Each structure stands twice: as C-alpha cells, then as structure tokens.
Amino acid sequence: MRCYDCLQEARSDTTGIGVCSRCGLATCENHARVRQVQVTHQIGMGASYGRIPARRVVCHTCDMAETAH
Prior knowledge:
The chain is of the alpha+beta class and about 70 residues long. The chain contains two helices and six strands, in the order αββββββα.
C-alpha cells in the first residue's frame, strides 16, 4: 500500500504503515498519528472503562479534524 497523503504530494515511493480508522486510507509513518482511546464495556444501564487505553491510527487530516476546536 502507498500513503495517500504522499501520493497527493507527488511522492509515490512511500509505503503505508497503517490504515486510518476514520477514513480508511493508507498512511505512512510521517502522516500517521497514533492516539489512545478509552475502551468501554456496556454493563446494564451504564458503562465500565478499561484500565489500559487502546491505540488507534488516524491519518493527519482526520487527526486535525478531530482535534480542531
């Protein structure tokens, strides 16, 4: 797989290291952002949160969209 953002920048030799969990495009180590997320489990009417956060990969564009305020 090739990194989508690198292809847009006319660099076609960059190999993707992951897939964005938001948009599904391949992303390289320069454009990928690894974020921690809390894992929740539904328990009756409430939720329980895991002690150890999970990780997820998002591309640079989706990361900027998620963190823009």
